């Protein structure tokens, strides 16, 4: 498969502080790739190396066949960027923001293209609304519309659903999936594992400037295990851990303030484990869920000696 | 390219128009300055003075008449000594002139005095009154001298006063003064200072306005969007400067039309193109400096502060408050590097002189400043966004 962006042993430092350390990564064309990590992991910095806002300290980055840094305007016109802060002109209407973007990217048939994009992102009814009066979710959609208005080969989105409600979040995800289905390569930086699961074909997990792993979101989740949260008192919790540790299919069991969390290799083990627990002692409740990002990191740390 | 430049300029104009605070911040200081100029121009022409006439004789009345007719100098209240003193105490008048009761007797003996008590808190106003009283006394003593010889047809100062033909007093002065003015008429103080108000308007809208729009860009991170776009840096700068130029013209044109309509400015017709060129290049240079500050500094507060300081120095060192040719040499040397000096010189030359000497140089320097800001800003605008 064609490679859109290739990082080869890339470092980025500010003074003596290392922000990104020895990153090697290939981003495939036509896929949604997620940069996954907690705040300060280096996700936004990695994005800014691609969009040209920063230059790497060492190593090689190739973007659409061109080595970075590059001051080539044609290369910049092949990428679309959606910043963490929407970076829209708040006093302008949705249409005026897109019209300005169209002029910057020297687009022809501006009105038709803007209409097409607004329809695609279901923003036609907001066309003449001043941006500062839009909700956070709508502003994000306008920013995404602006990002791919010029039909870029690569769309870079930093935190696509930061600060938006659940409904808007799902709407944005479906729009991004739609863009992917049209053949675009998309890079998304996110804090949320569920977002990566919902959107990405592949994720690069970053932690403190290092690349921990690249894998599919489902693989990461399965590696961390499906989680069974049990509410119980501390004494019962200790008893359950003793019984469950070493059982087949149990990856890990940790105490929590409200009881314990048991990580299972397979969803289907849920009932079997619950039966064991209920037969052993009293519980106040339970919940079955996917692991969160911190739990994924923990599982990765346990299995990677090099992880700091 | 034109489409991009116009889009950036149009964007800035829309943002400016939809931010009433920005319009107010740009327009209020020059309007305030114009009002101060009007007030000051009235104040510097006439000083409020109380006249007490205690003498009843013909000479006392003649002295009174001379002082009364000098309406250019005094804004006169004729009253008694008690009220005059109260007015002086309450600062309603700057001086009390008294023609004493024995004035006629003393005139006959050649010992007469016109007394005045002066609130000399301000040397400028005080000297005006001192000169005016001296002039009134000189006119009493030598009526054959025409002391107000501003009108060309009346001939040079010191000629025989036709109104004094029936008086045969010898001219007590042995030295005459012959003056030659550069202009047919004096330039009114208010008209002369109007240039400063125009400069302030251009600096406020062009430099401050453009710098603040750049600051807003950085604050809202829209600058990042501009920088990652394929638009070349120089076009980002030039578009912003074009926006600044149009904004200045929108603010300046009504002011110019009003000033011309009320004859505050009345340059020769042939000077209007030069004047338009000076205003345009000044607006370009001011907007360029604003855009450059916006590109050089990070952070809206820093940009706003830098723009404010730079505007103030450009105004003062360029000669906004005084004619730069009349200030100490070291200030003149310093002002040679200040573009507003050439703007002010060019405007005054086109407005108040009969020729356009030096205006071409002023235009070249102002245009070069604008081009230089685009060149420097082009480097800075992308660099400033990089970490």
TrEMBL record, chain A:
<dbReference type="Pfam" id="PF00005">
    <property type="entry name" value="ABC_tran"/>
</dbReference>
<feature type="domain" description="ABC transporter">
    <location>
        <begin position="5"/>
        <end position="233"/>
    </location>
</feature>
<dbReference type="InterPro" id="IPR003593">
    <property type="entry name" value="AAA+_ATPase"/>
</dbReference>
<dbReference type="InterPro" id="IPR027417">
    <property type="entry name" value="P-loop_NTPase"/>
</dbReference>
<keyword id="KW-0067">ATP-binding</keyword>
<dbReference type="GO" id="GO:0005524">
    <property type="term" value="F:ATP binding"/>
</dbReference>
<keyword id="KW-0547">Nucleotide-binding</keyword>
<protein>
    <recommendedName>
        <fullName>ABC transporter domain-containing protein</fullName>
    </recommendedName>
</protein>
<dbReference type="GO" id="GO:0016887">
    <property type="term" value="F:ATP hydrolysis activity"/>
</dbReference>
<dbReference type="InterPro" id="IPR003439">
    <property type="entry name" value="ABC_transporter-like_ATP-bd"/>
</dbReference>
From TrEMBL, chain B:
<feature type="transmembrane region" description="Helical">
    <location>
        <begin position="359"/>
        <end position="381"/>
    </location>
</feature>
<protein>
    <recommendedName>
        <fullName>ABC-2 type transporter transmembrane domain-containing protein</fullName>
    </recommendedName>
</protein>
<dbReference type="InterPro" id="IPR013525">
    <property type="entry name" value="ABC2_TM"/>
</dbReference>
<feature type="transmembrane region" description="Helical">
    <location>
        <begin position="21"/>
        <end position="45"/>
    </location>
</feature>
<keyword id="KW-1133">Transmembrane helix</keyword>
<feature type="domain" description="ABC-2 type transporter transmembrane">
    <location>
        <begin position="29"/>
        <end position="378"/>
    </location>
</feature>
<feature type="transmembrane region" description="Helical">
    <location>
        <begin position="241"/>
        <end position="262"/>
    </location>
</feature>
<feature type="region of interest" description="Disordered">
    <location>
        <begin position="146"/>
        <end position="168"/>
    </location>
</feature>
<dbReference type="GO" id="GO:0140359">
    <property type="term" value="F:ABC-type transporter activity"/>
</dbReference>
<dbReference type="GO" id="GO:0016020">
    <property type="term" value="C:membrane"/>
</dbReference>
<feature type="transmembrane region" description="Helical">
    <location>
        <begin position="274"/>
        <end position="295"/>
    </location>
</feature>
<keyword id="KW-0812">Transmembrane</keyword>
<feature type="transmembrane region" description="Helical">
    <location>
        <begin position="189"/>
        <end position="213"/>
    </location>
</feature>
<dbReference type="Pfam" id="PF12698">
    <property type="entry name" value="ABC2_membrane_3"/>
</dbReference>
<keyword id="KW-0472">Membrane</keyword>
<dbReference type="InterPro" id="IPR051784">
    <property type="entry name" value="Nod_factor_ABC_transporter"/>
</dbReference>
<feature type="transmembrane region" description="Helical">
    <location>
        <begin position="302"/>
        <end position="327"/>
    </location>
</feature>
